[in-house]
Amino acid sequence: MENTLDWYAEAKSVIQSERSLLKHIEISSLIVSNGVYLNIETLENQRFCVLLNHQGFCVVSKVFDQDTGYSQTFYETNFALFSNISKDYCRRFNELVNAKLNEFAGICEDKN
After folding, report:
1. Which of 1, 15, 29, 40 falls between 20 and 30 A from 65, CA-CA?
2. DSSP state, 24?
3. What pLDDT digit, counting tens, does each position of 81-98 carry?
4. Measured between alpha carbons, how far is residue 4 from residues 26, 43, 58 in Å?
């Protein structure tokens, strides 16, 4: 039997890592025994309720705090889901990676 608290810990980790790449992300008030729901708003102002469970991430509604069975497609990672539903997520992710690489290149140049 799965431990519900583990899903909340996983959700909190996703929230922490994705906060700067989305307009809004939080744990939903919906309760499920074998996972957790997330309310997500993309940079394009699109809202989704996403189920996170042992199968991965699945968009279940285009409204916060509802599971309407919107999709049956599961994504293995949060990156796969968010890059599929938000072009601005991809753009912002690439900008952040580029900034980190430039920062790292500067540190390497300083050491030479």
Report:
1. 1
2. E
3. 999 999 999 999 999 999
4. 16, 29, 18
Comparing CA positions, the residue from 71, 14, 20, 17 lying closest to residue 39 is 14
| Cβ neighbours of 53 (radius 10 Å) | 17
Q: What is the pLDDT of residues 16-49, one digit of tens each?
A: 999 999 999 999 999 998 999 999 999 999 999 9
| CA atoms of 96 and 111, how far apart (whole Å) | 23
Q: Identity (one letter) of the amino acid at 29?
A: S
Token pair for 47: 């809202």
Average predicted confidence (pLDDT) for the chain: 91
Q: Dig out the tokens for 26 from the structure.
A: 């939080």
Name the residue among 45, 76, 44, 41 with its Cα closest to residue 58. Answer: 76
